[in-house]
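Appendix B, example 12.
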Amino acid sequence: MNDAIDRLRQKAKNRPSVAARDYSLTQSNERFSDGKQSSNKSLAAAKAAKTNPSEPEVVRRTIRLTEDLDEKIDLLCRKHKITRETFLEAAYLVTQDNEEILSDIVAVAKERYSVRKKVGLKRKTKTMQKNFG
């Protein structure tokens, strides 16, 4: 047993050492540019695009809808040649200008949320009964 440990220690001593890496943030990005000098113009263009209000940054999300509502929204969007996302954005922007519509939408949303919570609780209870009972 000691012999094996001694051999491992000896092997570790004989390995060549590697110079420490430079992890500083001021390091050049040349090694990532496939031999070409990195372009500061593309970096500046990317920063400008983020600050340009005509091209806002888009966030991806998944929306879960009831099947009938999903079909209706699909038909509406195809009819008017818009996307679901632009429809949702526009609906939100319109409600910001009309407090009455916003309060109606929030009331309906709260009702639907309550129903979904109850359905989810029933599913959870069924699953627990199935697994433990």
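Residues 67-132 form one domain. The radius of gyration is 30 Å.
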